[in-house]
Amino acid sequence: MKQLILLSCLFCFNLLQAQKTIEATLDTWHEAASTANFEEYFSSFAEDAYFLGTDASERWSVKQFKNFAKPHFETAPAWEFIPVQRNWKISLVR
């Protein structure tokens, strides 16, 4: 029973750490946009990532999105994200 409780605690701790990491990554990403830091903003993207915009038809490769965004990053803020509420669902992948 003690092992089960210990494993449960470790699992919860890992989920909390994952959530903190996600929050910090998003905050850094949003800060880069608000200060028009093009390099920092796009360093968060994987080479084969796609950016999904607010419209259902907006699906850009990183290269396409960089081309679109570059003029917006010439003056601060490029754009500003102000989180109101974040909801996370984290699951194990096998």
TrEMBL record:
Signal peptide from the UniProt entry: 1-18
Residue ranges of the TM segments: none
InterPro entries tied to this protein: NTF2-like_dom_sf (IPR032710), SnoaL-like (IPR037401)
UniProt keyword terms in alphabetical order: Signal
Domain SnoaL-like: 22-87
Protein name (database record): SnoaL-like domain-containing protein
Organism name: Psychroflexus planctonicus
Lineage: Bacteria, Pseudomonadati, Bacteroidota, Flavobacteriia, Flavobacteriales
